[in-house]
């Protein structure tokens, strides 16, 4: 059949172009591309529907590509390439489809080319970056949730997964999630090419085990020869017609397939073919009948939505009333939900602690329970936020976001839009002990490029933090506190990202946030009784830090600062302030933080024991000459 | 049978004492304890062998306890409680065994008691802390590897896993690892009590699915009524006699079992029984025949080993020769292995990039491939390091340690001994692009309490960093660089943790590490030609940072510092220096770091593009007034 021959020709042209591109860049992974050439050919020229004019249309299918690390999302197919290092064949497929000239492929990995070593959304056909393995399927599942339950379009999501990559636990978190939510618009393709980076994978070509695992995790399974285009056409058709569960296509392939003397051989991971390239290209060219394949027509239809959002009514608290910021989070999320139905909440079975449960009670259809699997929780949130289809709020204990640091790191490269809300920070949570206390969360989120780090200290500023985060595109972190703390701001107070507020006046400058802002206020009151006046500053956001405000207020306070935080000394509020003042003279700072691993106990006792309470602040102020 | 009745009585006494302890602390998780009472009774008084005199003997069985979050290691049983929040029943079991008086249980969660909310090694019967879910099984597998392949004793390792917890992908990473290495001395017990924290688990009581998953991941499976002591006795006996594969006991249980009106009911997670306590205790007491059970005798036998270690020969490089620090890592590890056979290397299929392959080639039996599953990689390393049985070196790309941040965070609470070596840091890796570049690793490891952060800048200091890390107990991170850099130290140079070195003299103080130290040296040379002399400082360790050395040298250089790092600005070398100088006057600092998400390109081009190369350093020096 001419069509099948055309698909086979495309596969071999993709191989040839992957070799040429990696020869030009003198680095890259041509053998990882070769094992998936037929899969890419069939996906791009038979299975997926897409339009070159609107590569990111919300109704287009999605392909996530992930072979020993790819991930791409696409056009009317959300294609995610989990094994991102196979980027050259992704680029070759788009060139073959006509999105850009084939000659551009020779700019692979050049400093002024967007055809980077691993795909990023700097390219208009890539929705999320990949290259760190095992993250694609969660993102694809988040996209599939939007398509099935919110957009209700018939687009499909494809995610390519490498066999080495499938050892990542995050894959199995995503598998369990996808079957629980019956994501029949999701298809995972396992490129089982037997060889990892440094040795064969643990399961090699044992397809039976892969199939048993995928079945046990609730997937329809199809075992297929991954180099047989006819079998692949049939497999993808079957996946599309399967209802009520996602499908896993388990493709037996060979690394370096079609490269004589290289196919299925060890020690060829991540290496251009060098002086073997010409021979291999000639060999592949000899198999071409030079037929072309056309892309599948596509007429995008998706509901128009807006992400405009605000609190439907302002905060309404009484000064001095005690309310935990985590509780105000739930209240504020409902207020946002009242103005935009695309505000979605995700949690990892902690909703009755983080107060995302308040949102579930108000809008049960807009809450997605992700169970105890934080990598997938964040990945699903990133997927849901793609292409501007939702404002995802993701909550769990702040400490457990550390489980998803790599997803957040990649989220920044992916230009993701996700709002992370972490409760139970610091020693002020009390009796549950150190395993539940976030004491490094500020440092972690501060390293994420472009991430705003909010640390509101009362219910009024908490509601505004939620609103400010919802209104911008990007990654945000809001740190909420477990204990109830007094309302200190009038309901009409205006808050801005990167702008601090003076909440108490003069002399030495005290800077705290959350529970320690209240300790600073207590200390300031007691010091005032003793005739020592302190100015107290609420930074509101830790990143960006209000450097100008800090410098100005520090100068007005004789250059003396005491910073106090419920966090380890590294990378949090104290070092943010130290960095802000480091290029100025005449300003010195004392830094109070949790300097050992804490233990269980009542919150107030722990705060004093670890030197971040009002007594410690008073001592620090008095010790200033 | 009297023995079975005694085990049932113990189970109910454990329930009663769990209720009493959480009544006294007014917080805690009695219902999570109740579901596992029979399991704990049978483990402690029939299955496990241990001696109260030597709770941490290396030949003792190990129990890791992990029910919706426990983890304990034990006595001659390594018991790990994954579901750490069920700590009260662990403490109650030890009291029942006679390790301490039952009355101590009423001190649960008090600030001066080691009976914390979640177990930590502050208790002599706990080897690793738990409380963050899904980590226990990896640690247990690491212990089992030591027992089976290195100590070659017949101890067994038990890990209790909550059903909610089993949604964590790290569980499935550990399952795959345990079956790959045929760890028949490992038994995982799934406490399937149907209810999570905030709602039923996704699989509820669907035991068939649990069994299919465990089987597919290579475990022998036994489905059992988790409240039937006779069935449990038989199941554990069968597990002990199963060869060639680990066993999963899938126990159907009920949360709050035996508590009338509470058993199997939602909304009872993490709550003491309050005014229902007296009634429930009376009900349970009514079932007691008041029989006691004895612990199983144990005669510890394990090979005596020493962890004394050093390089068997000093570094032997020529000044100016170009060697990548990652390559010197492999060389130094072999030198350590020559003096101690318990130096073990673990990697996640990147051994040909990190150079742990050098060690595998020298000592194939001391290398354990962990495939692409970094959470499990770190967990296994922590387990291997328990009880002083090995010096585990764990390597992967530095960026991918972010996958295991939560394991490292818990590792600190566990007082773990593990050496993490991360390669491919910063933009200086070049063409692979941002997904592969570690630009936040320093910040992450700096937040780990007690962790030393080494950042050697040449092969000589690299070898000494490896040695210094091996010679101390605790968590260490060594950051290695991909490019080859010149040897700058004589082979007999002595290095110390927290001590920097001046490598070039005078005026403005330049501080760099790794690749940026070499850029600083280049800048200093060019500036000297222009008559501007700079002093260049190599900090060697980023944590602890040599605050005294920095202050002293800064003062000698007119208080002017330029810090340059191949890392994001937050939480790395720059903020460490900013923190060190923040309480001094007359010192100002300019900070060069990577301030946007980088892209693919040649290393040298990227270093200049992102403002951390010699030209940027020269500009910064000249801009000082």
Automatic annotation (TrEMBL), chains A, B:
InterPro entries the record matches: THDP-binding, Transketo_C/PFOR_II, Transketolase-like, Transketolase-like_Pyr-bd, Transketolase_BS, Transketolase_C, Transketolase_N
The kind of enzyme this is, by top-level EC class, is: transferase
Stretches assigned to the Transketolase-like pyrimidine-binding domain: 323-487
Instruction: Provide the alphabetized UniProt keywords.
Output: Calcium, Magnesium, Metal-binding, Thiamine pyrophosphate, Transferase
Q: Name one GO molecular function term.
A: thiamine pyrophosphate binding
**Which cofactor is recorded for it?**
Ca(2+); Co(2+); thiamine diphosphate; Mg(2+)
One Pfam family name from the record? Transketolase_C
Transmembrane stretches, by residue range? none
EC number(s) on record? Answer: 2.2.1.1
**An example Gene Ontology CC term for this record:** cytoplasm
- Could you name the domain of life of the organism this protein comes from? Eukaryota
Q: List, alphabetically, the PANTHER family matched.
A: FI06132P-RELATED (PTHR43195:SF1), TRANSKETOLASE (PTHR43195)
Recorded hits in NCBIfam families, A to Z, give:
PRK05899.2-5 (NF004559)
**Assembly and interactions?**
Homodimer.
By sequence similarity, the record places it as follows: Belongs to the transketolase family.
Q: Give the protein's recorded name.
A: transketolase
Organism the protein comes from: Tetranychus urticae
């Amino acid at each position: 059949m001419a069509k099948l021959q055309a698909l086979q020709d495309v596969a071999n042209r993709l191989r040839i172009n992957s070799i040429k591109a990696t020869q030009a860049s003198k680095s890259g992974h041509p053998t990882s591309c070769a094992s998936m050439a037929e899969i890419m050919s069939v996906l791009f020229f038979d299975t997926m529907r897409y339009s070159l004019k609107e590569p990111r249309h919300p109704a287009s299918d999605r392909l996530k590509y992930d072979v020993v690390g790819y991930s791409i999302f696409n056009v009317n197919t959300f294609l995610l390439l989990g094994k991102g290092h196979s980027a050259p064949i992704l680029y070759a497929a788009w060139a073959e489809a006509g999105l850009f000239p084939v000659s551009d492929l020779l700019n692979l990995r050049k400093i002024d080319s967007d055809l980077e070593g691993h795909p990023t959304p700097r390219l208009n056909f890539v929705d999320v970056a990949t290259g760190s393995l095992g993250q694609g399927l969660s993102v694809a599942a988040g996209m599939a949730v939007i398509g099935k339950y919110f957009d209700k379009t018939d687009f499909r999501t494809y995610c390519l997964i490498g066999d080495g990559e499938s050892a990542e636990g995050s894959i199995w978190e995503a598998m369990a999630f996808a079957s629980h939510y019956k994501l029949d618009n999701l298809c995972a393709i396992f490129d089982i090419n037997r060889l990892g980076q440094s040795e064969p994978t643990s399961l090699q070509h044992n397809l039976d085990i892969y199939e048993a695992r995928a079945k046990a995790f609730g997937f329809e399974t199809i075992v297929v020869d991954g180099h047989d285009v006819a079998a692949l056409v049939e497999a993808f058709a079957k996946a599309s017609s399967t209802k009520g569960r996602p499908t896993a296509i388990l493709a037996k392939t060979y690394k370096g397939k079609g490269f004589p003397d290289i196919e299925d051989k060890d020690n060829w991971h991540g290496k251009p073919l060098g002086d073997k390239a010409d021979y291999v290209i000639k060999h592949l060219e000899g198999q071409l009948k030079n037929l072309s394949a056309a892309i599948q027509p596509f007429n995008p239809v998706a509901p128009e939505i807006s992400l405009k959002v605000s609190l439907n009514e302002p905060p309404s608290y009484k000064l001095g009333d005690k309310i935990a910021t985590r509780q105000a989070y739930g209240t504020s999320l409902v207020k946002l939900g009242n103005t935009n139905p695309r505000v979605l909440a995700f949690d990892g079975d902690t909703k009755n602690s983080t107060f995302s449960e308040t949102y579930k009670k108000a809008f049960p259809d807009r809450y997605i329970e992700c169970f105890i699997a934080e990598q997938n929780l964040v990945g699903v949130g990133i997927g849901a936020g793609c292409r501007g289809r939702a404002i995802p709020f993701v909550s769990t204990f702040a400490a457990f976001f550390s489980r998803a640091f790599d997803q957040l790191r990649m989220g920044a490269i992916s230009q993701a839009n996700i709002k992370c809300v972490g409760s139970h920070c610091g020693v002020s949570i009390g009796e549950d002990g150190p395993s539940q206390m976030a004491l490094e969360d500020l440092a972690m989120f501060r390293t994420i490029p472009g991430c705003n780090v909010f640390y509101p200290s009362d219910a009024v500023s908490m509601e505004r933090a939620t609103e400010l985060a919802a209104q911008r595109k990007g990654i945000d972190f809001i740190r909420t506190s477990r204990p109830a703390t007094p309302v200190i701001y009038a309901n009409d107070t205006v808050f801005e990202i990167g702008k601090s507020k003076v909440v108490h006046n003069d002399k030495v400058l005290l800077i705290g946030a959350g529970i320690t802002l209240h300790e600073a206020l207590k200390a300031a009151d007691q010091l005032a009784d003793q005739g020592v006046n302190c100015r107290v500053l609420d930074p509101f956001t830790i990143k960006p830090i209000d450097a100008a405000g800090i410098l100005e207020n520090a100068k007005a306070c004789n250059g003396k600062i005491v910073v106090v935080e419920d966090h380890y000394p590294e990378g949090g509020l104290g070092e943010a302030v130290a960095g802000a003042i480091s290029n100025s003279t005449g300003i010195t700072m004392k830094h109070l933080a949790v300097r050992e691993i804490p233990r269980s106990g009542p919150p107030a006792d722990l705060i004093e024991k670890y030197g971040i309470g009002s007594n410690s602040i008073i001592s620090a102020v008095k010790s200033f000459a």
